[in-house]
Amino acid sequence: MATNLNGTTPLRLRPSAAKRDLNCAGAAQLIQALELEGGASEYSAMGNVAHNIAADCLRTRSNVRAFLGRRYTQDGFCITVDENMVDAVGIYVDIVLHDSSDGREPILSVEIGVDLSPLNAPGYERGTLDASLYYRAARFLRLYDYKHGEGVEVAGDDPQFFIYTAGELLKYPSCETVEIIVVQPRHRCAAAIGPAKRSMYTREEIFKWVRQKLIPGATACQAASPPLSPSVEACQFCPAKPDCPARYAQLREVLNMVKQSEIVVAGKKTEIKPGPLTPAQKVEILENADLIKSFISVVEKSLFKELSSGSDEYQGQLKLVHTSPNRKFNEHARDELTSPLFQHLVDDDIFTKTIKGIGEIEKSLKNKLTKAEAAAIMKQCTFKPPASLTVVKWSDKREEVKQAKACDVFKHLIKE
Question: Measured at the alpha carbon of residue 121, what is the angle toward residues 117 and 127, in degrees to the nearest 5?
């Protein structure tokens, strides 16, 4: 079996990072060498608390609202269960319990440890599934994954779910079909398409992916010097992105193109006029925009760290200064009994009413009306402003907007 960069046991790979590792074989070893993996954040701690509450509710049929206001210490952070968390977890629990009550008496499993070693994908040993329902008579399996985050949409075809699914299917040799359900109630997509995204796969499709993608990809990660392959899929959440030599090699190529540009200073205004770039070069620069931004961010953080440590290497060029924060009301300003504001002003002078977000209002309507009635009212009360034009990659699913060429628009004015 291939070994990790220390030449000992196989480098452990995490299913949640499979999208990165299967697209860039060298990422896992670079992250290990830089000791970047494993740091907890307040967001991840919040997600862990939400998962624990969801598991408790599914096992004991507890009311989610019973957890409102409770405080938990998770990964060094103090997390208070608020209305937002209760609502989101409640949606997930309701979906699982609703699916389980369809009369077919499925077997419900919660927080399932999945043994991945029989898949023979080096580095993938174990994983944990949030919940599953197995319908023995129908030879049908449902797998659930709860995502508490609201920033990034996760689809059912993410490699991590295929890995968990393959491991779980080994427990059920007669299972022929599996449905992967990703529940993401807090993401903005939930208002448009609902909180649950469902994807159906056959047993053969899952294990074909294991043979063709997972095993070769995992094996490549264990090589002595696996290649680094920067891409949107691989780099999006990679903690080694700021220190990746392959990304800097890309950056040098892009900067060489930028050097061909002409910098024009007109009065106080500075303009950059692109040089004689080919269409292919312009596309490459645009595709590497995030790389350039992350490079600038890394330089800024490095400079801040040096100057904060008392470096005098930037005298006459750069310096640390205090920001100019805006004033904020203190905790007594809103108190009608203690605030002097209320001695001279009325409520309308102090407070302003603002309409809630579309998603929140739509959710309230659906709780009181049918889905069709709520949709009809929202149609009367909302509109979409005219869409602006933007440049995206050709792989984007949106339809291309064809623009007429200037020579075609004015050709009737041009004499033969």
Answer: 50
Domain 42-221 has CATH 3.30.70: no
In tens, the pLDDT along 340-380 reads: 999 899 888 888 888 888 888 888 898 888 888 988 999 89
- Cα separation, 237 vs 33, whole angstroms: 17
Terminal-to-terminal C-alpha distance of the chain: 74
**Per-residue pLDDT reduced to its tens digit, 51-85:** 999 999 999 999 999 999 999 999 889 999 999 89
Q: How is the chain split into domains, by residue range?
A: 42-221, 356-382
DSSP summary character for residue 226: P
What would the two tokens of residue 79 be?
A: 């997390």
Q: Which position has the token pair 């002078």?
A: 349
Q: How far apart are CA 235 and CA 91, in angstroms?
A: 32
CA 274 to CA 280: how far, in whole Å? 13
**Distance in angstroms (rounded) separating the CA atoms of residues 94 and 199:** 19
pTM: 0.67
Q: Strand ranges (DSSP E) for 186-290? A: 196-202, 262-266, 269-273
